[in-house]
Amino acid sequence: MTPRLHLAVADWALSFDDRENVPEAVFEMQCMICHAVSGPGDTEGETSQLWALRHTGRHPSHRVFKLATATFWRVDPMPSNPYADVTPTL
After folding, report:
1. Hey, which of 4, 10, 33, 48 would disulfide with 41, CB 3.0 to 4.6 Å?
2. pTM of this prediction?
3. Looking at per-residue confidence, does 63 or 2 come out higher?
4. 64 CA to centre of own chain
5. Mean pLDDT estimate for the chain
6. Which tops the pLDDT comparison, 54 or 3?
């Protein structure tokens, strides 16, 4: 019988993606009453916070929001990994 799957062990490292032009985080606010969404905001979250305040100003009964935060991570091969010298594609 020919094996269909071969698993090998290799060392990988998971870390925060701190490359240039990669944001620390992206924030997005959603109104839990009408489900309107702020759209992605800057790293500090100011854009989303201001959007929520303005949204409540226009709709005084809309006072509950959900904040979604996205952060960016990457997996890199450790020196002992056979892929250590392979340049990743994006």
Report:
1. 48
2. 0.71
3. 63
4. 23
5. 89
6. 54
